[in-house]
Automatic annotation (TrEMBL):
This is Glycosyltransferase family 39 protein. Residues 32-238 form the ArnT-like N-terminal domain. GO terms for molecular function: mannosyltransferase activity; pentosyltransferase activity. GO terms for biological process: lipopolysaccharide biosynthetic process; protein O-linked glycosylation; response to iron(III) ion. PANTHER family: MANNOSYLTRANSFERASE YKCB-RELATED, UNDECAPRENYL PHOSPHATE-ALPHA-4-AMINO-4-DEOXY-L-ARABINOSE ARABINOSYL TRANSFERASE. Keywords: Cell membrane, Glycosyltransferase, Membrane, Transferase, Transmembrane, Transmembrane helix. The chain crosses the membrane at residues 6-26, 110-130, 137-154, 166-192, 213-232, 266-285, 297-313, 319-336, 357-378, 384-401, 413-435. It is a multi-pass membrane protein. Signal peptide: none annotated. Its main location: membrane. It is found in: Cell membrane. Pfam families: PMT. The keyword Transmembrane helix applies.
Amino acid sequence: MNYHALRIGALFLLTILSYGFYNAYLPITDPVESNYVLSAITMLKHNSWISPMIYDQVWYDKPPLTYWALMITYKLFGISDFTSRIPNTLVAGASVAFMYHMVYRMSKNVSISVLCAILLMSTLQFWYISHAVITDGFLFLFTLAIFGYSYLAFHNNDKASIIKAYIAAALAVITKGPVGILLPGLILVIYVCARYVVHRNDENYELSKDVKLLFNPLCLLAFICIASPWYIAMYSIHGEQFISGFLGLHNVDRALVSEHPKFNVWYYYLLIVPLSLLPWTPVICYQLKSINWKDDFDLFGIIWFVVIVLFYSLVATKYITYTLPAIIPCILWAAVKIGDLITDKETGEFTTSLKRFNYWVTLPLGIYYIIFTFATAFDKTLDSIPLVVGSFIIVCTIYIGGQYITSSFRLAIYAIVPLLTLYSAITITVSPILFNQSGLQFKTYIEDTSKPIYVYGSYYTSIVYYMDTTPTQVFVDTTDDPRWTEGKALMPTITKDSFLQQSNHNHGAYVIVPNKYDKDFTNTFPYPKAKLVNKTKIASIYKLQ
């Protein structure tokens, strides 16, 4: 029996079942998820498989691969919250399974490979992104392939592996854009230079081999054949608009001009990355002191991590998802350290004395769980019952399972139960938080009206998805760069002055006003000009009289 393939299948199924079980109850949120969902729906409506669209207009925000996945899913299973999350759930399963496969190819160690897959599946940022309708889940899978195959290529001088890395980079480019090749390319160039510094005195090392491997013509040909057709097709259809809109505004300008200036601080990712690695941050930090710069993997991993974090720290526009690929070597370092913690130093066998393991792994994991549980007490909309029940299951599992843990493989298997319980409980608990970030919350109040709907100062794209009606955005004074205002506002818009002039002809119109603009709106439209219909946690709904 092929146990390797069996483990790959088991990890894939375990991930998609545990990640997908509650997806039907997770609303589509604003401002990001709703854009992808509405784009796929609009593209289906126009049968547009090349040009991304939204609000019945061509949109140059992202390449099409994520849209294609959503479109195919909608074609097969219909449009719903659950089906919208199917692609990223499947990609999460593929990433976890591929993490096991790649680490096994590197180490030939089943326990460490399975442990890496479990650690990835239970890392906070990976869990979050794998539940979201965004491009980063796809990008992570392809970047993981770039990482693994690139390391194998240079470690074994394997031409087949470097070709696979280039193919993965091509898929990344039609997922996220040029960064899919530019950033890994920069990392590999630095790695080749670093390998020369480290190994230049080794008899078996030749710089020319690394250079020829990196710039193999077959690799470049494979990359061009896969990545270029969509770009060529878009340029042939849209010409200069595609260059200025996609490459200009959504790539170069995004790097140079912050889309969200308040987040453009140099220490942004120094805060985000440690949080994204929870609950494994302590054990990863513990392993860092054992990094060996002369070891090929450690050298590659540290360059990979530092370059990604530094690159996105220098980029003006910052999102919490950008540095997700940086966690890849960290997961492997965590697995190695956990392996050390459960191994007797003298005999090299599994140790039943788990004192160090409990200190660096069990204790932080317990604190992590307690933080989530107590956090529910400060928000009345959150139900703490799933986390309380989950804690009971975890305690029972640890007590019963602890008596049967006699090997690192068994430890990895038993660890799955409390980890899946934890994240299943969190998934159930956070549903109200997502509801408060979704236009679904307004459906009760404006679903049946035939009158115009306005959103004052902001926009909720998910209203279009849930209600099949398109509100008009009212522009108010903003400090945002005008390039973003003009380039991203494809929805119907109206200026505040025009809105005021038309208000006498809009009797009965609904106006959704986010809390931050409520004072401005009530000063402009004091009662009885606008009557408060209802309030939600993030906005008020008014009706013009």
